Amino acid sequence: MSAAVPTAIGQPNLTAIGFFVLFVVVTIGITWWAARRTATTEEFFAAGRAISGRQNGFALAGDYMSAASFLGIAGLVSLSGFDGLIYSTGWLVGWPVVLVLIAEPLRNLGKYTFSDVVAFRLRQTPVRVAAAFGTIAVISLYLIAQMVGAGNLIKLMFGLSYETAVMIVGVVMIAYVLFGGMIATTWVQIVKAALLLAGAALLTLLVLAQFHYSPTQLFAAAADRYGEAVLAPGKLVSNPWDAVSLGLALMFGTAGLPHILMRFYTVPDAKAARQSVFWATGLIGVFYLMTFVLGFGAMVLVGKEAITAVDKGGNMAAPLLAEVLGGTGLLGFISAVAFATILAVVAGLTLSGAAALSHDLWVSVVRKGHADHAEQLRVARGATLLLGALAILLGIAFRGQNVAFMVGLAFAVAASGNFPALVLSVFWRRATTAGMVAAIVSGTAAALVLVYLSPTIQVDVLHREGAWFPLKNPALVTMPLSFVVGIVVSLLRPEAAALEAYDHKERRMILGEQ
Amino acid sequence: MELAALARRRWRMAIALSALMVVIYFGFILLIAFDKPAMGARLGPGLSVGIVLGALVIVLTWATTWYYVRWANRHLDAAVQRLRDGRS
């Protein structure tokens, strides 16, 4: 760290530790309360379907607003200005798609996982195995990004060792999910979303107060200091194909993220599922508008040089801004909120992975649907422990790696593997088992292979000269590929039983369970 | 209204609004890709066309979800209720 930048970042911060311990105590209290209400699989995976639309809207926002989007976008804006807005909008525009295409049919057709919906009128075993593969691929990529981010962030903010940070996140998260299931996970998300929104709102107000509560005065101050270029598009969208491909992944990936989809099962009916997306879209949009203001605030009040001196990627822009505005106290609060954010997101991811392993693979495939509640819960908790341990191991294994691309990749896999099969199986009468399995497997595998061959891995990670595949994000190729494969294979391998059962599926999709 | 017709109507609404979002977002991205000077043009001190359009994308995203929720609350729920009642 440069001596020219006096900051408390990187030293143990008593306020941060205090707030963080308080958050853990409160959330473990919630978990204890939730554990006494978690006796069945419906409670463990779907919070007894008793979460209201508005509560689920906050929880969806909590699942979605990761530390990467808070610290990452504020950082990107603080260094390159306008370009950050490209990401903010990309992350938001997927929500209407979730609302109009996915939320209500999913709630009406499924039980715990999105493969319930794909497998509804198809043969269980092949579809469940393929969907669990798609789920685990997305979850693992997302977990790696979150755990490595957690390790780095906490090391930077609290001065703890990387491994200690990863272990703390892993162990606390396992406690939430293992004992409190979806009830605890939902309330942890709600508390986290409220804290994150409140923290961001407080910072935004403090920033704007210095500019007569006028965002344009803030932007003008940034332009005075760093030139008009900060208000115009910069280097981020240099290749239009890259931009469109990433845009597709963000827009349709949201509708294929297992931990987001699972949330729709926690509400009582389709109407509440609809309301929850309305709330989530509002909250997430406000959040991204605030991060844009915070980024510019950091650019002007902290300065680009001071931000890059602490972290080259700009990730500490928001915490540094907090320190400038409110001293170590506010820095501590914002650091603790960022830590809490990661904890909540990994809990949601782990729970959805556990649902895929236990509900899709164990109960539906291995036991052919004949497992009593006690066994289902045992397996679900075993899967939680397994995935929690995996998350810790992945976090440690990927230490020091550049994993910034993994969230984008997770969205690409979700958009290419899960989303096409979900849409085709719900809305297309002639979808078949073979077609949906082929769509999930081809989309997921193609996305993973093409990312490996892309500049993202070949140039940025392996430092090679060039890459075989030109696009940084594969969705532009792999999402249409998955749709085409799903349609062609379905037409080549018709399935009479699936065709006949469509009317029943359509009735249930519209009317719900009767 | 019979169920299949309602399902078709819901599907048309879903596709229209999804297509609208595609046009809004990719229109924004392609403007950035192909006409950076226009996006950087200033509308006043501290305000560029790009920032206004970016904020507009967020507002239109809200408007789209609001429009669907209003449509579904008014029309879809009532039709679903009629179908349910007619059946029982």
Could you give a short description of this structure?
The complex is a heterodimer of chains A (514) and B (88). Chain A has 514 residues and is mostly helical.
What attributes characterize this protein structure?
heterodimer; A: 514 residues; mainly alpha; Sodium/glucose cotransporter; 22 helices; 76% helix; 0% strand; B: mainly alpha; two-stranded antiparallel ribbon; 86% helix; 6% strand; elongated
Outline the structure in words.
The complex is a heterodimer of chains A (514) and B (88). Chain A is mainly α. Chain A has one domain: Sodium/glucose cotransporter, CATH 1.20.1730.10. In chain A, 76% of the residues lie in helices and 0% in strands. Chain A is built from 22 helices and no strands. Chain A is globular, with a radius of gyration of 22 Å. Chain A starts with 13 loop residues before the first helix and ends with a helix. The mean pLDDT of chain A is 92. Chain B has one domain. Chain B starts with a helix and ends with a helix. Helix content of chain B is 86%, strand content 6%. With 88 residues, chain B is mostly helical. In chain B, strands 1-2 form a two-stranded antiparallel sheet.
How is this fold's topology laid out?
The complex is a heterodimer of chains A (514) and B (88).
Chain A: H1 14-35, H2 41-46, H3 53-64, H4 67-80, H5 83-92, H6 94-109, H7 114-118, H8 124-158, H9 162-209, H10 215-226, H11 240-253, H12 258-262, H13 270-301, H14 304-310, H15 317-366, H16 373-397, H17 405-427, H18 433-452, H19 455-458, H20 475-492, H21 496-500, H22 502-511
Helix pairs in contact in A: 1-9, 1-15, 3-9, 3-13, 4-5, 4-13, 4-15, 5-13, 6-11, 6-13, 6-22, 8-9, 8-15, 8-16, 8-17, 8-18, 9-13, 9-15, 9-16, 10-13, 11-17, 11-20, 13-15, 15-16, 17-18, 17-20, 18-20
Chain B: H1 3-34, H2 36-40, E1 42-44, E2 47-48, H3 49-87
Antiparallel strand pairs in B: 1-2
